[in-house]
Amino acid sequence: MNVLLTGITGFVGSHLAELYLKEGVNVFGTVRWRSKLDNILHIKDEIELIECDITDSYGIERAIKQSEPEVIHHLAAQSFVPTSWTNPESTLEINVIGTLNILEGARRSELNPRIQVCGSSEEYGMVKPDEVPIKETNLLRPLSPYGVSKVTTDLLSIQYHQSYGLKVVVTRAFNHTGPRRGEVFVCSDFSKQIALIEKGKQKEIKHGNLDAIRDFTDVRDTVKAYFQSVKNEKCVGKQVNISSGKGHKVSEILEMLKKLAKIEIKTVFDQLKARPSDVPILVGNCDLFKSLTGWKPEIPLEKTLSDLLEYWREIL
């Protein structure tokens, strides 16, 4: 079996590649010439990398032809919400056109692979108190250019399933974190800052909005969900939430990490870390996905945060 992962060098891609290697699958992955390979150095000799930018339609067709995948996981994206405010054009081009190229490339290849397209909980945007936990049927009211880009890729993917019969599943994953998470994301940002403070290289944690409520799942549970989403025929043509079903204020995450620190940690608000508009609450209901696949998250949040903090201690 061959599987193609766009964005294999990323946080999620590297963990998913590890999972497939354990299953004895031939793993191919797209990389840009400037991609950092840090996350996959330990498995680089076990996978086949294809140099390709997802905004290049010819490059994507070549990658699909070369890998002949039975499964495609489309993970590559501009995934940091604040960046979508400073560079909305690039966010829309990478996320929307990149996804279109994957869908068109798969359609033209006549391989008929199963395709997982990464949506996002940010598609839901402005959620009302009586709509939590959020179901897949909830209205989509995105509050950022990133959220808009993911709504577009979500609907485009389902349209290709309906129009061309592509075996697509859209996963709307809520926040996921763990070792290798990029430093711009909140749990990893806090963890890196604590590691720097422990080493005497920083005095205090700088933070933005602490009132937002988020639903966190360990990345190692999330990639198992992605694996199940393409393995199970019942998921084809569906949009499914992947979440823990539990909400935590960002302030709670900060306190949990402070308790794991080796020294006392002070904090200070930094306006630069605040967003023009922030989704107040995102907590998902993933009963649909559980009923289709039997998947459920298994790793406690405390374990996830501990592993993440240890990751930063080791690499700094």
Features:
316 residues; alpha/beta; Rossmann fold; UDP-galactose 4-epimerase, domain 1; 2 domains; seven-stranded parallel beta sheet; three-stranded mixed beta sheet; 14 strands
**CATH homologous superfamily grouping of the largest domain:** NAD(P)-binding Rossmann-like Domain
Approximately how much helix is present in the residues? 40-55%
Q: Could you state the order of secondary-structure elements as H and E?
A: EHEEHEHHEHEEHEEEHEEHEEHH
CATH-defined fold name of the largest domain: Rossmann fold
Give the spatial strand order of the biggest sheet: 3-2-1-4-5-6-11
Shape assignment: globular
User: Mind telling me the CATH class of the largest domain?
Assistant: Alpha Beta
Would you summarize the structure shown here?
The chain has 316 residues and is α/β, with parallel strands linked by helices.
Report on this model:
With 316 residues, the chain is α/β, with parallel strands linked by helices. The chain folds into two domains: 2-177 and 216-243, Rossmann fold (3-Layer(aba) Sandwich); 186-212 and 247-284 and 301-315, UDP-galactose 4-epimerase, domain 1 (Alpha-Beta Complex). The chain has ten helices and 14 strands. Helix 1 packs across helix 7. The protein is globular and about 60 Å long. It starts with a strand and ends with a helix.
